[in-house]
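User: Predict the structure for this protein chain, please.
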Amino acid sequence: MSTSRPARWGAAVLLAGIAASACGAEPASPAEAPGSTTSTASPSATSSTSSGEPSATREALRWDEDHLTGSGGTFTWDVTVPRAAGPAVAGEVNRRVAASADHVVEAAAATVRDGDPPRLLTGEGTVTTDDGRTVQVVLEFVDSTEGAAHPTTSVTTVVLDVGRERPVVLGDVFDDPRAAFEELAPVVEEIADASGEPVTDPEGLAPEEVNWAAWQSGEDGITFWFQDYQLGGHGTRQYLVPWDRAGHLLTPGARVLLAPV
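Assistant: Here is the predicted structure, written as structure tokens:
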């Protein structure tokens, strides 16, 4: 396989698939990934804690891990994802997280050709928020091909409204998503500059949802992840935009759901 810079559309297609799933399209189950198998690993995560009024009548989720593994031709994958147990919403959480992982596996598998060198996709999922209002998970992947100069990295995220048992998409978060992205782009550039990682490809911050599709909220603000090469240079990046720079862009519903309580 080529080790040159990936085409921009590759990351865009991947994230578009994740966005389609988040918007309510029925995703494939883990068993539908080519040759995939699922086995439960020994529990390693602790029970989550809850805060805020929405959690008052809701049992906290309990967290274990699953491994999504399989192979097809020269391509092998081993992705660890968090698995929720407890109230009914756990099933929807697990379905969405598994679907996000499957999209990445399937997108990578679709690029494998006969005669390609051995290739391994690994991934790790982390629960970043479980506060009774939302469950949020970030999935980070490393795609390594034997003989390549370096692996390719990527990231996807899941944000689920616990009360409504449905994904939270950027159209729910911002009153005017395009205007929000235009305002956030220079903020991200400022943060990137301050961290010593200047944005050398500003097209990656264009006001299109696909460029901003990987995000999580927390006590300090909204973190956006950007794909390998998206902002110029190898490697995924993540930048936390504090609430005092992003909070005024939220819809009223998003303030209730995402802002600090």
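Confidence is low (pLDDT under 50) at residues 1-57.
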